[in-house]
């Protein structure tokens, strides 16, 4: 699981930050999932190492323009390129109507299947490897946060030990690898966990924007390896945050602390904290780290490799 930030500004783009979009690359299955799609997202993908042909799922948090204005352009380009097989889009009520109107008035036709799923709190997608769920956040309009949980996997199968026990190879090995119990022809009962290492705990990512501090975000982020959370305002501008129902740095940090996450990656920064102003982005990072030390400030094209539990303390996972 590899995260690439494609847009980290709030409301409007700046010279160095585009509006909201985060890509989740799943190398083991050659898939790319996108979270939000602000204006210019397709340009950001072209400037990155991501392959647009691998795009398969898009998750939209809410219907504000800085989170959806790039969606139609991206989908149209995917169709013209002709190398995207199918895209499933998940988001709040109104998303399908928005896309249908854009298709109708722009006379655009997709050359590949596109299906829009209107989401409700709970599990919205599941396959053999992942479970994706969503929950309500607290914003001016209906907004959802998302949680991606990789399923636990059995530990490494000890082939040499299996040979020592004279267990015949073939389908039996597959059952034992899955942790099943097998009765051999000679009557011996072999438990899969006797031949497998420790279970590999699945990685978990939560994505919460736009929102003020709320229990919905805490629940989505519970025990996550990484929480991506908006931090539009500095703590000093908390009044403005409450008025606009956006988070301050301290709200993002409090969410991470309450949820017990391993790492907080802040994004969706107001352009008001540009270099030379009274409050700068470095001050926002300092505020968050005072509450939750394992906080990083995302920037466009930053890459974060989500580590497995055994790797968390052993390697750096952020690439600038």
UniProtKB/TrEMBL annotation:
Gene3D superfamilies: Ribonuclease Z/Hydroxyacylglutathione hydrolase-like (3.60.15.10)
Cofactor comment text: Binds 2 Zn(2+) ions.
Domain Metallo-beta-lactamase residue range list: 202-269
Pfam families membership: Anti-Pycsar_Apyc1, Lactamase_B_2
SUPFAM superfamilies: Metallo-hydrolase/oxidoreductase (SSF56281)
Protein EC: 3.1.26.11
Keywords for this protein: Endonuclease, Hydrolase, Metal-binding, Nuclease, tRNA processing, Zinc
Active site: 66 (proton acceptor)
Subunit text: Homodimer.
Protein name according to UniProt: Ribonuclease Z
Species annotation: Trichormus variabilis SAG 1403-4b
Lineage, highest ranks first: Bacteria, Bacillati, Cyanobacteriota, Cyanophyceae, Nostocales
